[in-house]
Write a structure and sequence with these properties.
Number of helices of chain A: 14
Pfam families (chain A): Gpi16
Keywords (chain A): Membrane, Transmembrane, Transmembrane helix
Number of domains of chain B: 2
Shape of chain B: elongated
CATH architecture of the largest domain in chain B: 3-Layer(aba) Sandwich
Strand order of the largest sheet of chain B: 2-3-5-4-6-9-7-8
Organism (chain A): Arthrobotrys musiformis
Oligomer: heterodimer
Structural class of chain B: alpha/beta
Structural class of chain A: alpha+beta
Number of helices of chain B: 21
Protein name (chain A): Subunit of the glycosylphosphatidylinositol transamidase complex-like protein
Largest sheet of chain A: 10 strands, mixed
Strand content of chain B: 5-15%
Strand content of chain A: 25-35%
CATH superfamily of the largest domain in chain B: Zn peptidases
Mean pLDDT of chain B: 89
Helix content of chain B: 40-55%
CATH topology of the largest domain in chain B: Aminopeptidase
Low-confidence stretches of chain B: 392-406
Shape of chain A: elongated
Number of strands of chain B: 11
InterPro entries (chain A): PIG-T (IPR007245)
Largest sheet of chain B: 8 strands, mixed
Radius of gyration of chain B: 28 Å
Radius of gyration of chain A: 34 Å
Number of domains of chain A: 4
CATH class of the largest domain in chain B: Alpha Beta
Helix content of chain A: 10-25%
Chain lengths: 612, 602
């Protein structure tokens, strides 16, 4: 089944203007030779990670000529997103949804050099074309509001207090002319508290040409994806120009990286609740002197569990996405599924009904690639392996960890530990921190401490500093620092901050939980190694987000105060008013009121009046 | 009419003085009596879960079955390490945690206090919450040796087994930290200090960290025999701070209602929920709170606004085993995991008198406040009293003439002020001495100090009575008592809002200061006063506490010194810098009366 009929149907049914563009497109495709069709690629990379984890990286990429995009002629580029980008003059968009944390100690470097990962929650940055800053800001707000509706995320909460303009950390990845570049404004916003869930996945899948109905995206089931130990979804839109032909393409790249805990996923298959295992299922160390039926010293990780894609994802890949399958006459078949694992481990792998293994790939012992066929389900499985084969692990360029120091409701501190594991080369790093306005750092306390064998002076670590102070309720703090992390050493960045007191209406729901502070973004620009001239690719690392506790009022207090003050006011006012208006006189001073006489006088006057 | 009353009263001051005296005595009596009313049903309340998110006991706990085989095996492992040094233990524990796939950290620490060194090595493991973002954490702690220095076999084994069991669940929203502290007193303190980067030089930083700690449960399950009768919930923190009542209620409700496991408080085994047992539980709680010391590893967390309790097993006979305790801990952790916010709903100031009965601060605070009010009223009476004026023999006439209305003879403030301020400054001496002296010389130092604080007031009063004219002497003592009582009253009422029990007990011991006056006319009365003061002196209190715990005085002082250096315990400051000076000022006045009586100066 191809998705085309449904797409064109959707076009026809949307609006008269769309019908017009559709007709125009038809005309162009019939008569014009200039229109190049969009191309679409998708790829799933699987990589077993240490500690019984599996990394699955999904990559969906489509290209189309930018002229067609500008004329609102969308083929594979999602129309909903394309119109938003055009309306808001966004030239390049990066959107990240992330959940969990990447455990670089265990799993090593992040896939794609961390370029596809964002901080916990939602993070977005874009280059918006505008004449001035105010216009850029207005367009940025419009962009976020529109994306918020599109992705069912609270992106509309990215207001001026959560927006920063990074100076050193982000560089555009698209190609622009010099003239264009001067009109581009970079804006960056993050929502660390946003819980990423299925309501964000569904619109994400809808942007794909095959919409999760066929191809590798069939594996993307919300239940499995959000049970992963780490998962990150990203969307990148950028223009790409080829220097030879001077034609530009617009590229949209969607990725999903997820790390599955194999043992937990397999156990879910048996029972949703991890009940204690049966006694005979336990793997016990029988060499212990006390080993018996009653005593069991567990032996973990002594075996590589058997798994298959259908075990982990709950389903097989239901054949390739027709749009991503090259017609056979074209020859060069891009593989759809690749698995990276040690050679020994790959030998234990079996494929189920398969698609021809890709042959065009260079023969690598630790890489197996497959090309999917339409409507042919695909699955791979690994058998049990004892003793376990340790998977490949790539040492990350830098380890980063950030935590709060101190306690109390008034002051606090932040400590970031950056560790360069390389024994020879120092590494240049840009550290970016975007803080909410109610967390006010003291810049004079911003210090770097170096723990290393070589004697590096501490003032040599921070090369450059960009600081944009916060304005209360208007904007947050932006702190960017260019650092050098010496080889085989640890740099500890610390600073102190003061906690502001909020107005009681400014607290979010569940105020006593605290406030999430967005992840610090550590960018390692592409650079050359000093020792051997090897290249270090541009890499990006996010720390975890932090939970800042602010002094939180008892929210029933306003009510108590109102009642209390009202009571006091009533009592005080009552008695004072009483004292003011009442005249105190002695009993004997009071004039007797002679009721009888008064009545008589009145009657007398009446009588007089009558006689007159 | 309204204007006439004060004039009359000023003419006849004794009415005011009697009224003040009566009021202050009444305040004290009502204050003490109200404390004894608290255990009654009318004044205490049943506990209830205030935080809806906790949902205690709403989930089924599965721990048991084959997991118990693992606990038993770990018990054997712990047993085999029983007498090893802490670094060997830490290495072995780290190995077990690592094999379960957790992030492991180790921390060496060393404290110096009372001439001794307290060192060890903590080991802990962090279970990353699947999908979690490292913003929040909960801690399961088992000290290697518990507060009574018993090997915590069951607790450590259970923690190791639970760390593996918890890892299989994917529902955790917070990281779980498993901490095996080297001991129950210094280890947790070193760990929690380092977690907040507030540790001293001899304590290692933590290599692995997680987010803000939301709750701590300590498992204390010592002994080789694994059956137990009931669960002892220990909750007192350093400086008498308490964890949120919701946490205790959760543990009590889960253990009682879900697991059928009786819970006990304050070592009151076999609580019958009658008046006497409630009162005793409450008073035991108050003693622990007043001492402000650590009652378990949980105590060190509470000053960081981290709610923590210890679950200790009690008794050998019962039918509960590691399965019941494991399920209880599992269920408590499921409840903690449900928390959306930091504990804030329920009470932080309360007195528990039965596992399900408590009084809140609004009900019990008046007791301590009334004692402080009694002291303050006495101080005001002393100020109003014409004897505070150095008028000599003429004061009687003046009173009748009503000249007092315009001020009368001046009060001489310099001498009494300097006595009170000087003595309060002297309070720093015992505080500094007892925090720096070795354990070995603690006892002799204390004896010397007791002798000094008995002899010194006597010497001061002899010096003063012999050098200062009598008509200035009596008002000086009068006013010094006034100032010291005023200060004490003010301090105790402030302290009552922070540490009710300490304030109440010091108030109770200070009651004789209200009546102990300078009596040059009657030597027997002076003797009675001085004996009363001696009985209620800070030293007597130290002896009483030593007797209560069955320890020597030097052990109590060592504990105080350890508390100051390790936990940041403020009780010694209150005793030596507030209570002791007030007592010395009282003793000076009484001694002077005796001296004047003996010397015949009136």
């Amino acid at each position: 089944m191809t998705p085309f009929p449904s797409r064109s149907h959707q076009w026809l049914s949307s609006s008269p203007l769309d019908i017009f563009t559709f007709l125009l497109l038809l005309l162009l495709t019939v008569f014009g030779n200039t229109v190049v069709a969009d191309t679409y690629k998708e790829k799933l990379d699987l990589q077993p990670l240490p500690g019984q984890f599996l990394l699955a990286s999904f990559n969906f990429q489509s290209h189309g000529p930018i002229e067609a995009f500008n004329k609102q002629m969308f083929q594979l580029f999602p129309r909903s997103l394309g119109q938003i980008l055009q309306y808001t003059h966004t030239r390049e968009l990066h959107l990240r949804f992330a959940l969990g944390r990447w455990d670089s100690e265990l799993w090593g470097a992040q896939p794609g050099n961390g370029q596809n990962a964002g901080g916990t929650g939602v993070e977005t940055w874009a280059w918006v074309e505008a004449d001035n800053e105010a216009e850029a800001e207005a367009r940025w707000t419009a962009l976020n509001n529109a994306l918020s509706g599109l992705f069912c995320a609270s992106l509309n909460f990215i207001d001026s207090t959560r927006t920063i303009r990074p100076v050193m950390s982000f560089k555009p990845t698209g190609d622009y002319s010099k003239k264009d570049k001067s009109r581009l404004f970079l804006l960056h916003g993050s929502l660390p508290k946003e819980p990423v869930c299925t309501e964000n996945l569904t619109p994400f899948l809808k942007l794909l040409p095959c919409k999760g109905k066929s191809g590798i995206s069939t594996l993307l089931d919300g239940h499995k994806l959000f049970d992963a130990s780490f998962q990150s979804m990203s969307i990148d839109v950028r223009p790409i120009c080829s220097p030879h032909t001077e034609t530009c393409d617009i590229e949209i790249q969607q990725t999903i990286d997820m790390v599955l805990d194999i043992s937990r996923s397999l156990q879910r298959k048996d029972s949703p609740v991890p009940r204690p295992r049966d006694q005979h299922e336990l793997i016990c160390d029988t060499s212990k002197p006390y080993a018996s039926n009653e005593y069991c010293y567990p032996m973990d990780n002594s075996v590589d569990l058997p798994w298959s894609l259908s075990d982990l994802f709950g389903r097989t890949i239901s054949g390739g996405c027709p749009l991503a399958i090259n017609p056979p006459e074209k020859g060069d078949e891009a593989p759809h599924v690749c698995i990276h694992a040690p050679e020994k481990k790959l030998k234990t792998m079996q494929t189920l009904e398969l698609a021809a293994p890709a042959t065009s790939q260079g023969v690598q012992p630790d890489l197996n690639c497959y090309v999917l066929k339409e409507n042919v389900p695909f699955d791979i499985s690994f058998s049990k392996q004892q003793p376990p084969i340790s998977p490949l692990r790539q040492e990350p360029l830098l380890y980063a960890e950030r935590s709060f120091t101190g306690h109390g409701q008034e002051h606090g501190g932040v400590k970031t530990v950056l560790r360069n594991p390389d024994p020879v080369d120092s590494i240049g790093v840009v550290y970016l921190e975007s803080l909410p306005w109610f967390m006010k750092p003291y810049l004079h306390t911003f210090k770097a401490r170096v723990l290393s064998a070589s004697d590096v002076r501490e003032e040599d670590v921070i090369l450059d500093l960009y600081y944009r102070p916060a304005l209360d309720r208007k904007r947050g703090t932006q702190l960017e620092a260019k650092l050098i992390v010496p080889p085989n050493s640890v740099v500890i960045l610390t600073y102190d901050f003061e906690k502001a007191v909020l107005r009681y209406t400014e607290y979010p729901p569940d105020a006593n939980r605290g406030f999430d502070v967005a992840s610090a973004i550590i960018t390692i620009p592409a650079q050359r190694r000093n020792s051997n001239g090897g290249k270090i690719p541009a890499t990006s690392i996010r720390t975890t987000s932090l939970l800042l506790s602010l002094p939180t009022p008892d929210f029933s207090m306003p009510y108590n105060v109102i009642i209390f003050t009202s009571t006091i006011m009533a009592l005080a006012f009552g008695s004072i008013f009483n004292l003011l208006v009442r005249r105190f006189v002695a009993v004997d001073e009071v004039q007797r009121v002679d009721l009888k006489g008064k009545v008589r006088g009145l009657l007398g006057r009446l009588r007089k009046g009558k006689t007159e | 009419m309204a204007l006439r009353v004060p004039v009359n009263l000023r003419k006849n001051l004794s009415v005011v003085l009697y009224a003040f005296q009566g009021l202050s005595i009444l305040a004290v009596i009502v204050g003490i009596a109200s404390l004894f009313l608290l255990p009654l049903d009318e004044y205490s309340r049943r506990t209830y879960i205030s935080e809806n998110a906790l949902l205690p006991g709403q989930v089924h706990a599965y721990f048991g079955g084959s997991e118990q085989n693992i606990v038993r095996a770990f018990r054997r492992e712990v047993d085999s390490l029983g007498n090893s040094t802490s670094d060997v233990v830490a290495e072995r524990m780290a190995e077990i945690f690592r094999s379960a796939g957790l992030k492991v950290g180790k921390q060496r620490y060393s404290y110096k206090a009372a001439g001794g060194e307290y060192s060890g090595e903590n080991v802990y493991a962090v279970l990353h919450a699947p999908r979690g973002d490292a913003t929040e954490a909960i801690v399961l702690c088992a000290p290697w040796r518990n507060i009574d220095h018993l090997l915590n076999e069951g607790g450590v084994a259970l923690t190791l087994a639970l760390s593996r069991y918890f890892k299989r669940w994917s529902l955790w929203s917070k990281d779980i930290i498993f901490l095996i502290s080297s001991d129950a007193r210094a280890g947790p303190q070193a760990w929690v200090d380092a977690y907040h980067d507030l540790h001293g030089g001899d304590i290692q930083s933590l290599s692995v960290k997680s987010g803000a700690i939301q709750g701590v449960v300590v498992v204390d399950y010592p002994g080789a025999y694994h059956r137990f009768e009931s669960l002892h919930v220990i909750y007192d923190g350093i400086n008498g701070q308490l964890p949120n009542l919701d946490l205790i209620n959760t543990a009590v409700q889960i253990s009682r209602d879900q697991m059928g496991l009786r819970s006990e408080l304050q070592e009151m085994w076999g609580h019958d929920d009658g008046y006497r047992h409630r009162l005793r539980t409450m008073l035991r709680g108050m003693v622990n709170q007043a001492l402000g010391h650590s009652t378990g590893p949980h105590s060190s967390f509470i000053p960081y606004h981290i709610d923590a309790i210890t679950l200790a097993t009690h008794g050998d006979g019962g039918w509960h085993d590691e399965g019941s305790l494991g399920r209880t801990v599992e269920s408590v952790f499921r409840s903690l995991n449900n928390l959306l916010e930091h504990f804030h709903q329920s009470f932080f100031f309360y007195l528990l008198m039965a596992p399900k009965r408590f009084v809140s601060i609004g009900t019990y605070l008046p007791a301590a406040m009334l004692l402080a009010v009694g002291l303050t009223l006495t101080a005001i009476r002393l100020w109003v009293d014409p004897r505070s004026r150095s008028g000599g023999e003429k004061k009687g006439e003046k009173k009748e003439e009503g000249v007092v209305v315009d001020g009368g003879p001046k009060r001489e403030l310099f001498l009494p002020m300097s006595i009170v301020i000087g003595v309060h400054f002297c309070g720093a001496i015992p505080f500094a001495v007892f925090n720096s002296v070795d354990y070995k010389s603690m006892s002799s130092t204390f004896n010397i100090f007791v002798a000094a604080s008995l002899v010194l007031p006597a010497i001061i009063s002899i010096l003063m009575t012999t050098t200062i004219p009598a008509h200035r002497l009596l008002p000086a003592f009068h006013l010094s008592r006034c100032f010291s009582l005023l200060f004490l009253g003010m301090f105790l009422s402030t302290l009552a809002t922070l540490n009710f029990s300490l304030s109440f007990l010091i108030g109770l011991f200070s009651l004789p200061l209200m009546f102990a006056r300078t009596t040059p006319d009657s030597i027997p009365l002076g003797l009675v006063n001085s004996i009363l003061l001696l009985v209620t002196s800070p030293f007597a209190a130290v002896f009483a506490v030593a007797g209560y715990w069955g320890l020597g005085v030097e052990d109590i002082l060592k504990e105080a010194s350890f508390g100051w250096w390790v936990w940041g315990m403020w009780t010694p400051v209150v005793v030596w810098c507030v209570w002791w000076p007030a007592w010395v000022v009282g003793l000076i006045s009484v001694d002077s009366g005796l001296v004047m009586g003996v010397l015949g100066r009136k």
